[in-house]
Amino acid sequence: MRRSASKRRDQVLPKTLSDLPVGTHGVVHGLRGGKEFVGRVAVLGFTAGAEVAVVQNYGRGPIIVAVRDTRVALGRGEAAKIQVEVMRET
Amino acid sequence: MNGQIRNPQSAIRSPKSAVQNPLTVALAGQPNVGKSTVFNMLTGLDQHVGNWPGKTVEQKTGEFTHDGRVIRLVDLPGTYSLTANSEEERVARDYLIREQPDVVVIVVNAAALERNLYLLAELLALPVRVVVGLNMTDVAEQQGIRVEPHVLEAALGAPVVPLVASRNQGLRELMDAVEHLAAAPGAFKPNRPAIRAAHRPVLQEIHTLIAGHVPRPYPEDWFALKLLEGDVEITDRLRQAAPEAWERVHALLRQHEDAYLDIAGGRYEWIGRMVRVAVVRPRAGAVTLTDRVDKIATHPLWGLALLISIFGLVFWLTYTVALPIVNWLDGVVVRGLSEGLRTILATAPGWLSGLIVDGIIGGAGTVLTFLPILVIFFAALGVLEDVGYFARAAYVMDRFMHWMGLHGKSCLPLFLGFGCNVPAVMGCRIVEDRRARLMTTLLAPLVPCTGRLAVITFLAPAFFGRAAMLASWGLVAVNLIILALTGIAINRLIFKGAHTAFIMEMPLYHLPNARTIGLFVWHNTWAFVKKAGTIILVASVIVWGLSTLPDGDVERSLLAGLGRALAPVGRLMGLGDWRLMVALLTGFVAKENTIATLGILFGAGGPGSGLAQQVAGMLTLPAALAFLVVQMLFVPCVATVAVIRQETRAWKWTALSVALQLALSLAVGVAVYQVGRFL
Model's pTM, two decimal places? Predict the structure, then answer.
């Protein structure tokens, strides 16, 4: 993870996980999508209030997210269905 | 044996008989927890691998003795939860409910404890007795994560045994705990997760509505909980068993459609309470080895370069090490065996010696000489899989797989296909979505397997001279492009451009375990050996029969008649000689049989010197290219067709696969020849 002096807080508007740059920490706010999708990601730990951190995001293609001590790869479309409240960017 | 099914009614046994009976222990766990290592360490090679009855889910059982007591270990499929999302999950929970094992061991990864305990939270909703195997404590410590087993045990109210299964540490203690629990089942009083307060009244209401309507052998509490979760299978069960009750439950549930997320959230809250005091974690932001490696391995550009290099290396290694062994087996062992048998059978009737030497040894025997290639290839893939690289390869390939409406996971069976298409088709099971799995199954036989690559390796030097290497790589590249185009076309035409969700865990990198890799090689290669000993053997004999009937002369045989009938099609590809068409046809038995057939038909007596040159001499360059292209794309071999049928459980898809490749090979063959002629 890169070090950076700037730390921002108080970003209340939920964003989708796919929009967040590498190093962003946040809290899962909600899940959109069909029941099967929601069920699968909830089991993996993406439940309301869970802390997530973006490990890999190149702007296209799948992304990697750290959640509950594991790393999960999500397709861009799937990541776009997970809403996150941003805590800080490092 | 695994066929022994116990009656659920007889589950209540007296403690005395329980001491004498063998213990049945189910092994549960999420993926990437080292569960198969635990299984392999406990059972060794004494394991039985098959399918769960009526399912395409692998079932592994094994037996061993612990302190003089026979323990029957049943490996449940690795699943994240026990909802009805996948066939694996249904298999796992059906087993637990119907067969009621004496003890369930859940293996969890200490480095990912919270997520792993989700399965425990689901398990504890069932009337089972659970021992927790806290595995990979060494990996966790490398990550700076420390788990206190005793504290966790006190919180859960279930025995927790720390393990490092890869180094055979803690397994004895694990089995002690299992036996202890089995001896005093009444003492098991775990801390079971409760549902959030907000949903308790609804759950209670469901309970009242379904009372007396729950089909056997489902536990009523669990059934009610799964109804609230909206579980598809359980909802269906109730609808069939008690339509009126279902109507009322259904109306009630419609007001609580969000309950599923809440229940999952509630389970994680329970987990949070369980691990709070038991786990010490590192300060946030520590950069691990996995993160450093992944900077390159999952980079869109470097990751792809790494993937290509690794696979280049795997192929180079495979062929450098294996080809001399294959040549030795073919030239010395098979030939020696053939000649020896011919001498022994000199006084026997001619057909007997022909059947054994040309039919059986020439067919199935030749196929078996490719075993070293498979062993080395699968060993290399086994290492990549065990260290955790496969998930990265899938991640890097995901963006390309999207063009076909597939996602990264489908790459893994396709990689296996370079070794042998049979395990590749079976490997399609890891793709969760039915549509994506079918599509991967249709594409897997288009991956050029060892057999096909062997034909190219054999003929290319004679066909292309110095450009042989370049031509071979070009053919493989063209083959893969055709695979991609076919995938895009199938997705558009048959599956109407649907898209599958890509959700995949990226495990931590860890050191490979020799035993796990050994068993990976064993299982993948054994599937091939079994087919060689059965289907390929029978087919070889049939081909040999067709080539000798009716009067022993190849030129006038039934096979020659078939080849001549196909000659008009062959002429379109510059392959007017019936022998070439027959050689391609016999590739249906096994791809590498093409060489053996050419050997028989051109009278070279096997793939000895001169055969390739002889064939090359009668073909123009476009025709030679067409021959190799058709050979690569031609219908899957009979063993692959058999597993496609077995895995899809539908003749429709099997027929489609064969028809697809037949059409594809002929179309591309004709195109290559006709275009090549004008250049």
Answer: 0.84
Q: Supply the CATH number for residue A74's domain.
A: 2.30.30.90
Which residues of chain B approach chain A closer than 8 Å at the C-beta? Answer: 80-81, 83, 85, 111-115, 118, 145, 230, 260-261, 264-265, 268, 281, 285, 287, 290-291, 294, 298-300, 391, 394-395, 398-399, 402, 407-408, 499, 501-506, 508
The alpha carbon of B19 is separated from its chain's Cα centroid by a whole number of angstroms, namely 38
Write the residue in A58, A69, A75 that is nearest to B501 by C-beta: A75
Taking the Cβ of residue A80 and every Cβ of chain B, the question of whether any pair is shorter than 8 Å is answered with no
| Interface contact B115-A44, CB threshold 8 A | yes
**Phi, psi dihedral angles at B61 (to 5 degrees):** -130, 155
Q: Looking at the complex, does the CB of residue A38 fall below 8 Å from at least one CB of chain B? A: yes
Higher per-residue pLDDT: B612 or B77: B77
Q: What three-state secondary structure class fits B106? A: strand
A45 belongs to a structural domain: yes
CA distances from residue B422 to B417, B510, B541, B647 in whole angstroms, order as listed: 7, 28, 21, 11
> Would you kindly state where each structural domain of chain B is located, as residue ranges?
8-187, 197-280
Using the predicted structure, report yes or no on whether residue B12 has a pLDDT greater than 70. Answer: no
Torsion of CA B401, B406, B408, B413, to 10 degrees: -100
Average pLDDT over residues A51-75: 92
CA distances in angstroms from B90 to B120, B367, B456, listed in the order given: 16, 38, 44
Give me B212's structure tokens: 């007396």
Q: Is A11 a domain residue?
A: no
Residue range(s) defining the domain that contains residue A54: 34-79
Per-residue pLDDT tens digits for B625-643: 999 999 999 989 888 998 8
Question: Does residue A44 form part of some domain?
Answer: yes
Residue whose structure tokens are 């997320």: B261
**B93-102, B132-141, B343-352: least confidently modelled range:** B343-352
Option in B118, B230, B265 nearest A48 (CB): B265
Chain A residues 14-33 within an 8 A CB cutoff of chain B: 31
**In B, which residues are within 8 Å of A1 by CB distance?**
285, 287, 291
Classify each residue of B220-243 as buried b or exposed e, where b means 16 or more C-beta atoms within 10 Å of its C-beta.
Answer: eebbbbbbbbbbbebbebbeeebe
Distance from CA of B295 to the nearest CA of A (A): 8
ipTM of the assembly?
0.86
Residues 6+ apart with CB under 8 A from B271: B114, B117, B118, B121, B193
CB contact under 8 A, A31 and B261: yes
Distance from CA of A58 to the nearest CA of B (A): 8
Residue A64: inside a domain, yes or no?
yes
Number of domains in chain A: 1
How far, in Å, CA of B444 to CA of B422, rounded? 9
Is residue A1 pLDDT above 60, yes or no? no
Which chain A residue has the Cα nearest residue B507? A71
Token output for B632: 């690569």
Q: Tell me whether A58 touches chain B (CB under 8 Å).
A: yes
Task: Report residue B594: phi and psi, to 5°.
Answer: -50, -45
The answer to whether A73 contacts B502, with C-beta atoms less than 8 Å apart, is yes
- Whether residue B4 is predicted with pLDDT greater than 70 in this model: the reply is no
Q: Going by CATH, does the domain composed of B197-280 fall within 1.10.287.1770?
A: yes
Name the fold adopted by B8-187.
Rossmann fold (3.40.50)
Q: What is the mean pLDDT of residues B428-445?
A: 89
| Residue among B230, B294, B391 whose CB faces A35 most closely | B230
